[in-house]
Amino acid sequence: MYHTKENGRIQTLPYDKFRRLGPKALTEEELLAIILRTGVKGMDALSLACLVMEQLGTDKGLLGLFHATTDDLMKIRGIGEVKAIQLKAIAELSLRISQARVKKDICLRSPADVASAYMERMRHLEREQCVVVFLDTSDCRIADEVISQGDLTSTLISAREIFRRALLLNASSIIVLHNHPSGNPTPSNSDIKVTERLREASGFMEIPILDHVIIGDQVYYSLKERGEL
After folding, report:
1. Hey, what CATH topology would domain 111-222 get?
2. Is 64 helix (H, G, I), strand (E, B) or coil?
3. Which terminus of the chain, N or C, has fewer Cβ atoms within 10 Å?
């Protein structure tokens, strides 16, 4: 183990394990300890990391960082504003890294392609978000846009605005997707009604809607795949 002096005492950090075995060998608590770097009086960095994980919820693990606010983190003993900001920065950075893996011109030819491209972006959201993906003639993404925030039952999705944007982007087709914060992607009655409404509009505009994909927690539901579109 790597040792540092802090407040007149020795603090143990898992740097040596990192050097010997690499990052994959470290637990989530050990990785957090390296990020936190220091602990507080009576608690070294690894113990503090364990406390953070416990407070985030053992069922959530590191995913709890996405849902905890800076103020939430600062309620944990030993986590001040600087450490809280560090933890939130790590969560945001990991999300951006996962999104950066998806090329802007990616082709979406199956529900699995759609889920792979948008899972990390959408599965952590605490509110429903509806995204429309505009595709070219090769089913490759031209652009995507958030068209609504909040429960679809209370948010008016304007078919007119969606297809106006499709025309402006010279899109040949669209894919609609939204997330279920509960983690269960099973469509509600309102999801099915919205899909039917958009399908009717797509026929009129001659810009087909290829699918409506609902993102859950590491699972998805394709209305096209299930024969509901």
Report:
1. Cytidine Deaminase; domain 2 (3.40.140)
2. helix
3. N
Q: Interior CA angle at 47 toward 77 and 28, to 5°?
A: 110
Burial 181-213 (b: 16+ CB within 10 A, else e): beeebebeeebeebbeebbebbeebebebbbbb
Q: Distance (Å, rounded) from C-alpha 93 to C-alpha 11?
A: 27
| Residues 156-208 pLDDT 10s | 567 888 998 999 999 999 999 999 999 999 999 989 988 998 999 898 889 99
- Residue 211 exposure: Cα atoms within 13 Å on the Cβ side: 23
End-to-end Cα, the chain, rounded Å: 57
Q: How far, in Å, are 51, 89, 124, 165 from residue 93 at the CA level? A: 22, 6, 14, 30
Residue 129 structure tokens: 């978000």
* E strand map for the chain: 2-6, 9-13, 129-135, 141-149, 173-179, 209-215, 220-222
- Segment 112-118 shows an average pLDDT of 91
The two structure tokens encoding residue 22:
């690499």
Q: pLDDT tens digits for 153-162?
A: 544 567 888 9
Residues belonging to the chain: 229
**Angle of CA points 202, 122, 116, to nearest 5°:** 80
φ/ψ region of 61 (left if φ > 0, alpha if ψ in -120 to 50, else beta) reads: left
Residue 162 and residue 118 in contact, taking contact as beta carbons nearer than 8 Å: no
Q: How many CB atoms lie within 10 A of CB 101?
A: 10
